[in-house]
Design goal:
CATH architecture: 3-Layer(aba) Sandwich
Number of domains: 1
Helix content: 40-55%
Shape: globular
Order of helices and strands: HHHEHEHEEHEHHEHHHE
Strand order of the largest sheet: 3-2-1-4-5-7-6
Structural class: alpha/beta
Strand content: 15-25%
Oligomer: single chain
CATH class: Alpha Beta
Largest sheet: 7 strands, mixed
Length: 285
């Protein structure tokens, strides 16, 4: 990262340290209790649908947009507990390198993968998506679900994705967006929750993807699902508070609850969105 400014390097370091401490801390207990082994937004079909099936629909829809085979090499960033990596390996017999900066999540992911007998095809490594330790043109697919919001420098993340993808390899991601018209006070609260210097709007993703050498092949707006996701999780937190609070403490519970409530309200007001994008890494020569 020698070409990065000191200010940008600081933002990256701050974002990485926060995400690592967050997911290695009490958040892990909450996510495993409420979300289970997959920590993502859900693509809902019914008002009364539970989040787990909606999350699986989002994964399946994203997978349907890419052509995988047994010789495919997939890199996943922000892999959580490895649910997606195991699904790809089971369904397509492809090789998946799943990365994360949370040691706790990586440990749990490796245990679950070994229990399913998939350790020969699915590998887990600690890696920072701002500065990936992999050679150029190493992967056919780069996968991310709601991990870019933790980036200290999103352009650097996209440049790294382009670098490690083979020519015309696919970047497949879903991500939370923040409208440019978001009131400053609300923007500050949203960014404070993820400890990121910025969050991009849909338009900013369009611009930066092109600037970083990507050609968008598919673009879906899934924004209506954000409030539903956090509405469901808030209800689960309320129902299970007597079990959760003794384990993590009142302060940690309140922090999680208030953060999810903030995002639910911001989504209902149209400021927080959610996009699904598939983009090809075109050559930049």
């Amino acid at each position: 990262m020698n070409n990065l400014s000191l200010a940008t390097s600081h933002h990256i370091q701050q974002a990485v340290e926060y995400a690592q401490n967050y997911y290695d801390g009490t958040a892990d207990d909450i996510y495993r209790d409420i979300w289970g082994n997959s920590i993502h937004l859900g693509l809902f079909e019914r008002e009364d649908e539970a989040l787990p099936s909606a999350m699986q629909r989002a994964k399946d829809t994203m997978i349907d947009g890419i052509a995988l085979h047994e010789n495919s090499k997939v890199l996943e960033v922000g892999c959580g507990y490895g649910t997606l990596a195991r699904q790809l390996s089971r369904n397509f017999h492809c090789s998946v390198l799943a990365t994360n900066i949370s040691q706790k999540q990586l440990g749990r992911a490796a245990e679950l993968t070994e229990a399913e007998g998939l350790s020969d095809k699915v590998k887990f490594e600690k890696a920072d998506f701002h500065n990936l330790p992999y050679n150029d043109d190493s992967f056919e697919v780069y996968w991310s679900q709601e991990s870019f919001l933790h980036a200290g420098d999103r352009v650097q993340v996209l440049n790294e994705a382009h670098r490690v993808l083979e020519p015309f390899g696919l970047l497949a991601f879903s991500e939370v967006t923040l409208r440019r018209s978001t009131p400053p006070s609300l923007r500050e609260q949203v960014l404070k929750r993820v400890k990121s210097p910025s969050m991009w709007s849909k338009h900013e993703y369009e611009i930066h993807l092109k600037d970083c050498g990507f050609q968008v092949e598919k673009w879906d707006d899934w924004s209506e699902n954000v409030a539903r996701t956090y509405g469901w999780t808030l209800k689960q937190l309320e129902r299970r508070q007597d079990d959760i609070i003794p384990r993590i403490g009142q302060d940690a519970y309140d922090h999680a609850y208030d953060g999810m409530k903030l995002w639910k309200l911001a989504a209902e007001d149209g400021y927080l969105g959610w996009i699904h994008v598939i983009a090809a890494a075109i050559t930049t020569d």
